Amino acid sequence: KQILPALNVANCWEPSEMTQSAGNPLGLNQLGIFRDYTPELICSKILVQKPKKKLSYYLAGLIEGDGTIIVPTTERSAKGRINYPSIQIVFNLKDLPLALIIQKELGHGSLARKKGVNAYVLTINNYEGWILIVNLINGKMRTPKINALYKLIDWLNKRFKELNIRKAPIDKSLLIDNAWLSGLIEADGHLTVRTTTSGQYPKMECKLELSQRQRDQNGNSNLSFLEEIAEMLETKVKEIRLNKPNPEYRLRTTNLKGNIILETYLEKYPLYGSKYLDYKDWQKVLEIFKLGEHKQEKGIERIKSIKLGMNDRRTVLIWDHLNKFYNLD
């Protein structure tokens, strides 16, 4: 349904209530935060329901991908001000509706446009917010970022003796049994379609690609959790950018079976940002591969047509899928 002529990107959203700071209602006509945002329209009815408690795993994956837990190393700044921790989650500019829903469900945090970058940052700087996040993701983390969580727990336990928060070990449950991987893909995954029909070796592919620095800023290796993901998707982790200052590990789904495993997983534990829309198009391409039509002219043209509307080429963002977002209640 065409709401208005497409001018850049149209986001369709018809919210009954929106928030800029947690707990402060904001009507659509008051939403000045959108003035910096290229899409002209936001369309959809967001009626967040109260499903299963999967938010904790999803949030852990999201934070381990695009989040930061900052814990001060000194009690006071050079100016004598008390230093406090901060939990930050970065969202792509077009994923503002997702950021707002997460802010609403957490009931904490402020959301601001990041200067010079196409991103919004959700920042939690209050005691209740720290405790909530710790309780949600403690025991759900799988990457070296768990060390930042441990530092935050130490900071909280030191200053609030009554807490005595236990540091849960790194999660070793099966990836396929929870929403952690969907959170990580939301942050760092790329669902892509390749259509190279010219040259000596024409190629048609649909795949997930996930890359991480080989070592984080503290020198911890990211290989272990990537190998777990690769094993689940029946692929391998490869080293890339070896001649760069920060070499990376990368995994890609390289066969139909791995893509079907991923599809089954994402149907159970969905994406919720704009990548959900890319996933639904990616899924259409995958169906062409399942039918063996990706080598036929009709199938190739269909794949090319689908690809034209994916990722950065998408001109309309419909957010109805946020109706099914996880709820804390």
TrEMBL record:
Keyword Mitochondrion: yes
An annotated Gene Ontology molecular function: endonuclease activity
Domain Homing endonuclease LAGLIDADG: 59-154, 181-285
Keyword Mitochondrion applies: yes
Keyword terms, alphabetized: Mitochondrion
Gene Ontology cellular component annotations, sorted alphabetically: mitochondrion
Entry coiled-coil feature ranges: none
Source organism superkingdom: Eukaryota
Record-linked Gene3D superfamilies: Homing endonucleases
UniProt name for this protein: Homing endonuclease LAGLIDADG domain-containing protein
Originating species: Capillidium heterosporum
Organism lineage string: Eukaryota, Fungi, Fungi incertae sedis, Zoopagomycota, Entomophthoromycotina
